[in-house]
Amino acid sequence: MSFPTPSAKSRSRGNPERKLELSPRMSFSAADHAFMAHALQLAQRGLYSTTPNPRVGCVMVRNDHVIGEGWHEAAGQPHAEAGAMAAIVGAGSLAACQRRCPAIR
């Protein structure tokens, strides 16, 4: 899947003469789609507990291996990204993370 770049008509706020720089098109692999699907599944775990906040899932990946994941469990609780980072740190150390996932270097 690719996403379009900004059109040549795009202008920076406050200066109508300044054009935004165009970036190359982005594409996502099948693995990227699978990791995103997993993040969406994690987000569903907060279905009835996060209001008024959105449901969010987070999957942290390195070298095509999941090294941490989390979700926003309830309103007022840490965000999904904090849960994913805690899962990585919860492995005890970088050495412990490397034993769990040798792709971490």
Description:
With 105 residues, the chain is of the alpha+beta class. The chain has a domain at 29-100: Cytidine Deaminase, domain 2 (3-Layer(aba) Sandwich). Helix content is 30%, strand content 23%. It has helices at 30-44, 80-89, 94-100; strands at 2-3, 11-12, 15-19, 26-27, 57-62, 65-71. The strands form 3 sheets. A two-stranded antiparallel sheet has the order 1-4. Strands 2-3 form a two-stranded antiparallel ribbon. It has a two-stranded antiparallel ribbon with strand order 5-6. Strand 5 and strand 6 form a beta hairpin. The protein starts with a strand and ends in a 5-residue tail after the last helix. Residues 1-12 have low confidence and may be disordered.
Write down the Rg.
Answer: 18 Å
- Which segments are poorly predicted (pLDDT under 50) over 5 or more consecutive residues? 1-12
Number of strands: 6
Question: Structural class given helices, strands, pairing?
Answer: alpha+beta
Helix content: 25-40%
Q: How many helices in DSSP terms?
A: 3
Which topology of the domain at 29-100 does CATH recognise? Cytidine Deaminase, domain 2
Order of helices and strands: EEEEHEEHH
Largest sheet: 2 strands, antiparallel
Instruction: Give the rounded overall mean pLDDT.
Output: 77
Strand content: 15-25%
For the biggest β-sheet, the strand order reads 1-4
